[in-house]
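Okay, is this right?
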Amino acid sequence: MAADEAAALIEIAELTKRFGRFTAVDHVSFRVARGEVLGFLGPNGAGKSTTMKMLAGFVTPTEGTARICGHAVQTDSLAARRTLGFLPEGAPTYPDMTVAAFLRFVAKVRGYAGDELPRAIERVVTLTHLDTVWLQPIETLSKGFKRRVGLAQALLHDPPVLVLDEPTDGLDPNQKHEMRALLATMAPHKAIVISTHILEEVDAICTRAIIIAAGRIVADATPAELRAKHPSGRLDDVFRQLTEREAA
């Protein structure tokens, strides 16, 4: 179901990114309302991460606009970023910092001070189960724990909008279950976009899915509506049908 314009916390209109003659993202438009968990799907090189980076303000679009909670990402960047929690691909951090030092640093950047600072950190450490690695340098952590540190910094200021690029990358099955349960708990109060190529996550947590191929949206529907597009009723068959047709 398409997000209602008045309730949309994320608004993307004709977003386009070209690198020389190559068009990575081609006039993409969609809205996401509070309470929606949008799965943003596509094969490698389809334009998923580039779209997420433009929404987060890390990449400047060639054309089009992106707004978060009514704030234009390009012209009202600080206000837009205050309402956004962003987990980028690879979750870059400061590897020589401990988890404790890094989250304190992020909290201070976000404007926390006094008693509010440790309370904010304690909340996200509890949510992401980082207490066992609290004093470890980030560079010594497993890929899954590094992902959790990245998620913790995205959640630290309790933003109304979350944009998560491959949030379960590197997590074991139990950790994936915990991540999905956490997102489901937060979903009613936020607009969440999850960029992924793991189709099982769409069924597990997404209320809606967009499939992108060659930089263009080829489907925008609920998981059930997508499954109905193929006789097998399997999302992987629908995904393959839509993306291979676009590539042909």
In short: Confidence is low (pLDDT under 50) at residues 1-6.
